[in-house]
Amino acid sequence: MNLHEYQGKEMLSSFGVRIQRGIVAQNAQEAVAAAKKLTEDTGTGWHVIKAQVHAGGRGKGGGVKIAKSLEEVERIAGEIIGMDLVTPQTSAEGKRVHQVLVAEDVYYPGDNEPEEYYMSVLLNRATGRNMIMYSTEGGMDIETVAEETPHLIFTEEIDPSVGMMPFQARRIAFNLGLSGAAFKEMTKFATALYTAYDKSDASLFEINPVLKTSDDKIMAVDAKVTMDENALYRHKDYVALRDLREENPIEVEAQEAGLNYVDLDGNVGCMVNGAGLAMATMDLIKQAGGEPANFLDVGGTADAARVEMAFELILRDPNVKAILINIFGGIVRCDRVAQGVIDAYKNMGNIDVPIIVRLQGTNADIAKELIDNSGLAVMSATEFQEAADKVHEVLS
């Protein structure tokens, strides 16, 4: 589950991480009121207006702008709210902006020049340990830094038995070239950031940039936060932070129906039970010359109602040219799945794309007989390769 920047910053602040302060606004009038409030509380003269969408690169698409007066706050907020923001991380249609974050200006003049760093906390799947990734090249895409200047990326792995140690926080500050007050500030910042990640059961905290202000304060100017949905039962208050407007509506509907669905860009719809089999089925489609249009796991109770719902979800994609149903009957009986497919097909009426059904496992022979004798335009298969050949055939 992704959070908006303002939500991520509020979470960070609750764990003692210094943040760029801001107030979220739903319209231009609220943005002006927020700017006035920030000026009273912080003394900031300029304000940063930031589109709140679940996508990076907002500045490149015109979603982050500086306002030097209240008139500009109102005008810029009015322009950003309601726009379809296109960034390198959105589709060509972009994402509709429903709200903006009005934030204080933290690039104020002082004794030193402000400096930007990159820092994230995530799981290193190769070692099974959390790690802090950081770089002196803040404000840039970390992928670009990794490609062009990989020696400027540092990592600090955390031993889960002891947690983050003080010497690791000091090493982070040292590798970033800090000294004096900024050094001490960075050790506090890194320690608090890791605590926030660990205690909130997040799967990603990315701060880009982390700013060293002109008076040596260290703060989060941005916050990309992804929560581990499997741990949300421990954090009921975080569930309320979910913004369904930012998510694929079909995926939301599938989740509410108890289906695991991920929308993709291909031409062959998949209906499978079990995540592992679903991944193998997607590989099968690729080998047959197609592209998977979705990941869809109907789970262990593939009855007629669930199969019909799965059909409806897949067929909403106009790019789907064929559907491959690949079910292994372990707990669920293949003949029941076959009957579910037949019933769903009849209930839905005209389905104008070819359907290949591979059922293997308990009562697979009975299931194949049901499909073959149904009189419907459904092709049955028993082997993986046979299913692949039929996918290739219908796409040719």
Automatic annotation (TrEMBL):
Q: Where on the tree of life does the source sit, at the highest rank?
A: Bacteria
Choose any GO biological process term that the UniProt entry carries and state it: tricarboxylic acid cycle
Q: Which Gene3D superfamilies match?
A: ATP-grasp fold, A domain, ATP-grasp fold, B domain, Succinyl-CoA synthetase domains
Q: What is its EC number?
A: 6.2.1.5
Which amino acids does the record list as binding Mg(2+)? N208, D222
Residues binding ATP are K50, G57, R58, G59, V106, E116
What does the UniProt keyword field contain?
ATP-binding, Ligase, Magnesium, Metal-binding, Nucleotide-binding, Tricarboxylic acid cycle
Q: Which residues form the ATP-citrate synthase/succinyl-CoA ligase C-terminal domain?
A: 271-391
Note the coiled coil stretches, chain numbering. none
Q: Binding positions for substrate?
A: N273, G330, I331, V332
Domain called ATP-grasp fold succinyl-CoA synthetase-type: residue spans: 2-210
Pathway annotation: Carbohydrate metabolism; tricarboxylic acid cycle; succinate from succinyl-CoA (ligase route): step 1/1
GO molecular function annotation:
ATP binding; magnesium ion binding; succinate-CoA ligase (ADP-forming) activity; succinate-CoA ligase (GDP-forming) activity
How many cofactors are bound and how?
A: Binds 1 Mg(2+) ion per subunit.
Q: Which InterPro entries match?
A: ATP-grasp_succ-CoA_synth-type, ATP_grasp_subdomain_1, Succ-CoA_synthase_bsu_CS, SUCC_ACL_C, Succ_CoA_ligase-like_bsu, Succinyl-CoA_synth-like
Q: Which cofactor does it need?
A: Mg(2+)
What does the protein in this record do?
Succinyl-CoA synthetase functions in the citric acid cycle (TCA), coupling the hydrolysis of succinyl-CoA to the synthesis of either ATP or GTP and thus represents the only step of substrate-level phosphorylation in the TCA. The beta subunit provides nucleotide specificity of the enzyme and binds the substrate succinate, while the binding sites for coenzyme A and phosphate are found in the alpha subunit.
Quaternary data: Heterotetramer of two alpha and two beta subunits.
PANTHER family tied to this protein = SUCCINATE--COA LIGASE [GDP-FORMING] SUBUNIT BETA, MITOCHONDRIAL, SUCCINYL-COA SYNTHETASE BETA CHAIN
- Return the similarity comment: Belongs to the succinate/malate CoA ligase beta subunit family.
Can you name this protein? Succinate--CoA ligase [ADP-forming] subunit beta
Source species of the chain: Bizionia argentinensis JUB59
Q: What is the lineage of its organism?
A: Bacteria, Pseudomonadati, Bacteroidota, Flavobacteriia, Flavobacteriales
